[in-house]
User: What shape does this take?
Amino acid sequence: MAAAAAIQTILPSKLLGSNAPRRSVSHSSEEKQNPKQKEKRFIANFKDSNGSSLPTEKIAEDPKHKQLGHPSRHLQLKDFDLLKTIGTGTFARVWLARLASPSKEDRDKVFALKIIRKVDIIRLKQVEHVRNERNTLAAVAGHPFITTLITTFSDKECLYMLVYAGPPMLG
Assistant: This one.
């Protein structure tokens, strides 16, 4: 029982970098809105590959002050529609996903959602490797030649990495 509690409390902060700075807070009318809705809007407004890359000096300058790659405390798996599996591994599965109940203009925006089972990470002693993967993807988020980590989140059983999947791959 104590091990299960440790997984729920320690693992998300270790793997998802909960001590990382949060997105900048604005003091406009947006501040009064639900934080979950703000994060979903941030994801929905993520630009396609033509506008998603940052200038190289911005990527290298200070990766911790980018909005991309920061962990989310509000998103959940139910906020996404899982469309189809695009890859599997030892302890993870990558799904083609889109926001649940998207607006008309966001209906074609798709993402890759990597779902990693916590139990398997611990059993296979991969905690440090997963943390390094998350930190590395967050540090290079916005680079034109590397897939962009948009955000990460977790629940009791899994860790999730939301990655930009490029132009719509449905069809």
